[in-house]
Inverse folding.
């Protein structure tokens, strides 16, 4: 696999870059999702927090408010069980409550257990494809009218090297990420000449998240990159400094360990 373009995670947005902007983040209470949400709020964005765990959403809401950010919006939603009709409802609620949408970050994911295809659990396959790929497609589709109305919309798909290289035993997670890469390229090509929306995928590398711990419990999380160390690269793609990136499969060049 050819080397992917890298984005530095050592990034702070310029003053006012996110003031008045509305950003929707799925998987908002996960490690990377929360780190990005809090950084966005620190930069004065209004963040729409979408995740399945209401208690965790309320805790993140409280932390953002305590840290002085704009009041976020909470949207409890289980992507695994959501029907086709639920996704337009998300966009409609954002339109009615906030009046705009400037960015969409897909950070929600399930990993499942690494296994060869001939032994892969069929239910786990469907569940993983639904959360990681189908939900990203349906939510992006529903939100496109709002994003088109923004003067600088952005869609960022959180990806993984397994989807770009076709790693053995990657199973549904790798296949879903390969699908996300395809969705990114198709959408970027369709929007390139007609909108201001920038679409990219971003691989944060191996990060100490709950997702990683469930699949690789033997890894020491303190020896891995922390979520806060990669958040800056996502922030860059969602803001004005990300305008030079479109249709790119990017990777994060993380900050030195101990930061973030």
């Amino acid at each position: 696999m050819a080397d992917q373009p890298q984005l530095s995670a050592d990034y702070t947005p310029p003053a006012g870059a996110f003031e008045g902007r509305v950003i929707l983040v799925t998987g908002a209470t996960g490690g990377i999702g929360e780190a990005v949400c809090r950084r966005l709020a620190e930069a004065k964005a209004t963040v729409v927090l979408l995740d399945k765990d209401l208690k965790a959403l309320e805790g993140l809401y409280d932390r953002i408010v305590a840290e002085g950010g704009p009041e976020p919006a909470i949207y409890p939603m289980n992507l695994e069980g959501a029907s086709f009709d639920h996704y337009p409802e998300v966009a409609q609620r954002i339109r009615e409550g906030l009046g705009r949408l400037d960015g969409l970050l897909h950070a929600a994911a399930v990993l499942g257990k690494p296994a060869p295809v001939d032994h892969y659990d069929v239910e786990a396959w469907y569940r993983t494809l639904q959360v990681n790929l189908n939900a990203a497609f349906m939510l992006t589709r529903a939100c496109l009218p709002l994003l088109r109305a923004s003067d600088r919309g952005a869609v960022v798909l959180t990806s993984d090297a397994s989807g770009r290289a076709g790693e053995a035993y990657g199973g549904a997670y790798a296949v879903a990420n390969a699908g996300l890469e395809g969705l990114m390229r198709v959408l970027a090509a369709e929007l390139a000449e007609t909108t201001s929306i920038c679409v990219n995928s971003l691989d944060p590398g191996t990060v100490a998240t709950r997702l990683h711990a469930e699949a690789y419990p033997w890894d020491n999380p303190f020896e891995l990159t922390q979520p806060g160390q990669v958040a800056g690269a996502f922030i860059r793609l969602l803001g004005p400094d990300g305008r030079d990136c479109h249709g790119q499969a990017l990777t994060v060049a993380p900050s030195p360990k101990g930061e973030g």
Summary: Residues 122-149 form the longest helix (28 residues). The beta strands are 6-8, 22-26, 46-51, 73-76, 103-106, 154-158, 198-203, 249-253.
